[in-house]
Write a structure and sequence with these properties.
The protein is of the alpha/beta class. The chain has helices spanning 2-9, 14-26, 29-36, 40-54, 70-97, 108-125, 141-146, 208-214, 231-239, 249-257, 287-297; strands at 59-62, 65-68, 101-106, 130-135, 149-154, 161-175, 197-198, 227-228, 245-248, 262-263, 269-280. A hairpin with a 2-residue loop joins strand 1 and strand 2. The N and C termini lie far apart (52 Å).
Length: 300
C-alpha cells in the first residue's frame, strides 16, 4: 500500500492532464479554455505545471499557434485512452447511483456536431433522464459495449453489438464563402486548391487521399499542407478561410444553412459504411436507454 501511495503522489494533478488533453484536441489554449470554462491564463498555468512535472515541452510554440511536440504527441497517445477509461468508470458509477441515467459512446466529432444538439432537445422532452456522453476518437466495439448505447462507424456487423443504421456517409468539399477559389469542374481540379488535411491515423476516417481515390484521382499530400487531427478543427479552419476541408453532410449542413460554409463542386463521396446506433446484444437495455434509443431514431 505504501508503494502505491508513493506512486500516486508522483503523478501530476488530474486537472493538468485534462487541460493538456483539451489543448491538444482543440488546437489552441483559447479554445480549450472555452471548452473547460476557465481562463486562458489558467490553462497556460496548468500546461506549464505539467511540463515542469514531466521535465519536457509538450507543445512547440510558433507565431501562428501551437502544435504538439514529439514528446507531447507520445504522451497524448498514452494518456488519451487512460482518461477515457477514467471517464467511463465515473459515468458507470454515476449511472449505478442514479437509475435514470443513460450513457452513450461516440467519437468527438459526432458528439460535437450531431449528438449534442439532440441531447439538448431530448433533455427538454425528458428532463427526468440524464444522458452522459463519453466521446473519444478511439471509440470501438468494446467501448460501445460498455456503455448503454454507442454510435459506431462500420458496416453494422459486430460480434458484441446489435446495430441500426443511423447516419449515412456523404462527404464533400467545403470552404468559407469568403474564400476566393475557382469552382472545380472535375474532382481533379481540387488538387490545385489549398486543401486542409485530416490526419486520421488514430481512427477509421476518410481523408483527402481516400476521397480522391473514390474518383480515381491520384493525389499526394503536399509536404507543407496545413493538417489537423480532428474533424472539428478542419471544419473550423475552413470557416476561418484557411482552405478547403472535407465535410460530412450530417455535421456540415447546419453551417452551410447558416452561411458559414459553402459546398465546392457537386462531387460527393458516398460510402457503403456509415455510423450505426449500437447496443450490447448480451445485455438488455434499461427502460430509459430504450426511451433515448427510440427517440434518437425519430430524429433521422
Amino acid at each position: 500500500m505504501a508503494n502505491v501511495l508513493r506512486m500516486l503522489n508522483s503523478l501530476p494533478p488530474i486537472e493538468t492532464l485534462v487541460c493538456f488533453e483539451a489543448v491538444a484536441r482543440c488546437g489552441s489554449f483559447t479554445s480549450a479554455a472555452r471548452e473547460l470554462s476557465i481562463t486562458q491564463s489558467a490553462v497556460s498555468k496548468q500546461i506549464k505545471a505539467l511540463e515542469e512535472a514531466l521535465h519536457c515541452a509538450l507543445f512547440d510554440r510558433h507565431a501562428r499557434g501551437i502544435e504538439l511536440s514529439h514528446a507531447g504527441a507520445g504522451f497524448l497517445e498514452e494518456l488519451e485512452p487512460l482518461l477515457y477509461k477514467l471517464q467511463r468508470a465515473v459515468v458507470k458509477a454515476r449511472n449505478e447511483q442514479y437509475g435514470q441515467a443513460v450513457s452513450i459512446a461516440c467519437t468527438l466529432s459526432i458528439a460535437h456536431y450531431w449528438l449534442f444538439p439532440r441531447v439538448v432537445r431530448f433533455n427538454q422532452r425528458y428532463p427526468e433522464i440524464t444522458v452522459s456522453v463519453v466521446s473519444t476518437n478511439s471509440n470501438n466495439e468494446h467501448s460501445c459495449n460498455e456503455a448503454d448505447l454507442g454510435i459506431l462507424y462500420g458496416d453494422g456487423d459486430w460480434s458484441l453489438l446489435d446495430s441500426i443504421p443511423l447516419i449515412p456517409t456523404v462527404v464533400y468539399p467545403v470552404c468559407s464563402p469568403e474564400l476566393q477559389v475557382p469552382s472545380p469542374a472535375t474532382p481533379s481540379d481540387l488538387c490545385a486548391l489549398p486543401l486542409i488535411q485530416l490526419d486520421s491515423h488514430e481512427w477509421d476516417c476518410i481523408d483527402w487521399q481516400d476521397w480522391f481515390a473514390y474518383f480515381n484521382v491520384d493525389y499526394q499530400i503536399p509536404r507543407k499542407a496545413i493538417t489537423f487531427n480532428q474533424l472539428t478543427l478542419t471544419l473550423n479552419a475552413a470557416i476561418e478561410g484557411l482552405g478547403v476541408s472535407l465535410a460530412w453532410d450530417s455535421m456540415a449542413r447546419p453551417a452551410i444553412e447558416a452561411g458559414k460554409l459553402k459546398r465546392l463542386g457537386e462531387f460527393q463521396y458516398e460510402a457503403q459504411r456509415g455510423d450505426h446506433l449500437v447496443y450490447s446484444r448480451h445485455r438488455p437495455l434499461s427502460a430509459q436507454a430504450s426511451t433515448f434509443k427510440d427517440w434518437l431514431l425519430t430524429t433521422v
